[in-house]
Amino acid sequence: MAVETSKIAEIVVDALTDAVNSELEEHMKKQPYDIKCHMCGDDLEVNKSTFDGDYDLSVEVYPCQTCIEEAKAESEVQ
Fold first, then answer.
1. I need a labelling partner for 13 at 20 to 30 A (CA). Which of 32, 64, 66, 72 fits?
2. Phi-psi region of 2 (alpha: psi -120 to 50; beta: other; left: phi over 0)
3. Whether pTM exceeds 0.85
4. d(Cα 53, Cα 27) in Å, to the nearest integer?
């Protein structure tokens, strides 16, 4: 009986974890916030977002095109 209860508890925890992760992923797709470049303030496009086991958010963004173009222009001048 204890083994069955343990297995049921494990299944419930896994199901709840999957549900929470699905909700977080859906929330990230909607992106109710802005992510901006710290140099120029332009909006950045999210490449990938993940949550770890403690539900800490990790966001990977594409480089800011404005800053890339400015850096290229500066390197060509020098």
1. 32
2. alpha
3. no
4. 17
